[in-house]
Amino acid sequence: MPTLGIFPGRIATRGLGGVVISAALLCSGGLAAAAEADKPQTNAAEAAWAELENSLRAPQPPIEWQIVQPTDEQISEFRAKYRQFAETAADKARDFYTRFPDHTNAFRARQAEYGLLAAAVLTGATNQRVRLIAAGDELLKQPGLTPDDRFEIRSSQIQFIAMARDIKDRTEAAAAFEKDVRALQKEFPDRPEVWQMLGEIAQQYPPEKARPLLTEIVEGPAPDELKAEARATLKKFDMVGKPLALKFTALDGREVDLEKLKGKVVLIDFWATWCRPCVVELPNVVKLYEKLNPKGFEIIGISLDRQQDKARLENFLNEYKMTWPQYFDGKFWQTKYAEEFEIHRIPTMWLVDKKGNLRDLNARSDLEAKVEKLLAE
Fold first, then answer.
1. Could you tell me which of 110, 86, 90, 89 has the C-alpha nearest to residue 100?
2. How far is CA 256 from CA 92, 244, 260, 262, 311, in A?
3. Are 327 and 250 in contact (CB under 8 A)?
């Protein structure tokens, strides 16, 4: 918490465990464009500016990663490399605007520093959080900021502040973040991104706390896509405590019928091999299955893999020793049960109790404790 979907300079955190791979994060508009418009400066300033531009050539992940899934170790090594690049370049950006505060591109250098510090924090440099927030404060004082600039800086600031709080309790962390987002909403009442942030917060809340927030999203000026997701979540809340029907022929030919699993606690896992967070969690899920299956714990997988990835899925199941049944029809987000239950994000984990009733829509949080509790009923 939070998910950091909105960032200055349109930072993107895509795949690979959150590795920042978009050079667009460095500064809005780009340093090169600003340099072309620059007025003649001293030779020292020009040399420093050229050095700063050269330092912004970010390392890129190996092209083969587009075909072959990198290992956790490879990802960790790349994140460390990117973090070092970002911290070093941020120092050079600060050095530039400190030495040449009146230079035409001093503001661009501040923007670059902020984006680079954000990248450093995202890739693990927690020691840079205080500096990042301070850099944002200074950037907000600069003349000539557009409304978009101000919003992106402010929205990213509150997200990093939320990260720095390090609150263990999921609901408490979401509540603290919501307070900051509400303040942002007062500053920028017409920004649709604020509603997106509130939607993410609702996903962290238990149903009783999420319901009023989701209702506000449905009834307010939120984007239509977010409203549809909020309606779907409210509909699923109404399913909790009621029997869940699930019957299919699994990928390996087994017949699966949730009705026949009464007396057991069942985890319904909506996932895919292309979903990095899903894959990261798998070792723990496998370990939990091996530990609690003898006590009456079962898992049913709902794969959102594509048809062309069927062989990969089968190999994946063998490699990770995922012995539980998998539903697979190769239709990606149009997979039967993803559509029927309106699943808009994965991983999603549901828990069904011994009576066959749906009990939890967010089982990822404290999964083992929740399963143990249901087994004890």
1. 110
2. 60, 13, 8, 12, 21
3. yes
Q: Which residue, among 377, 261, 290, 270, has the nearest Cα to 333 in the 3D structure?
A: 270
How far is it, in rounded angstroms, from Cα 113 to Cα 86? 9
Confidence of residue 188 (pLDDT cuts 50, 70, 90): very high
Q: At CA 108, angle to CA 106 and CA 114, rounded to 5?
A: 105
Return the closest-CA partner of residue 201 out of 219, 222, 175.
175
**At residue 165, does pLDDT exceed 60?**
yes
**360: enclosing H helix or E strand:** strand 358-360
- Classify strands 348-352 and 326-327 as parallel, antiparallel or unpaired: unpaired
Q: Tell me how far apart the alpha carbons of residues 214 and 145 are, in angstroms, rounded to a whole number.
A: 33
Give the tokens for residue 209.
């706390």
Token pair of 197, please? Answer: 């942030």
**pLDDT over 70, % of the chain:** 89
- Give yes or no for a contact between 303 and 282, defined as CB atoms under 8 angstroms apart: no
Q: Which residue has the higher pLDDT, 75 or 11?
A: 75
Mean pLDDT of 293-319: 95
Query: What is the pTM for the complete model shown?
Result: 0.71
Q: Domains in the chain and their CATH numbers?
A: 8-166 (no CATH), 247-375 (3.40.30.10)
Question: Of 224, 230, 226, 225, which is closest to residue 207 (Cα–Cα)?
Answer: 230
State how far the Cα of 174 lies from the Cα of 21, in Å rounded to an integer. 27
Strand, coil or helix: what is 205? coil
pLDDT for 116 beyond 70: yes
β-pairing, 348-352 vs 358-360, is antiparallel
The span from the CA of 123 to the CA of 13, in Å, is: 10
pLDDT band at 41 (very low <50, low <70, confident <90, very high): low
Task: Say how far apart CA 259 and CA 361 lie, in whole Å.
Answer: 19
Partners of residue 265 on adjacent β-strands:
297
Instruction: Using pLDDT thresholds of 50, 70 and 90, give the confidence band for residue 42.
Output: low
Instruction: Tokens for 342, please give them.
Output: 């309106």
Report whether 175 contacts 6 (CB < 8 A): no
199 pLDDT above the threshold of 50: yes
Q: How far apart are the first and last CA of the chain?
A: 31
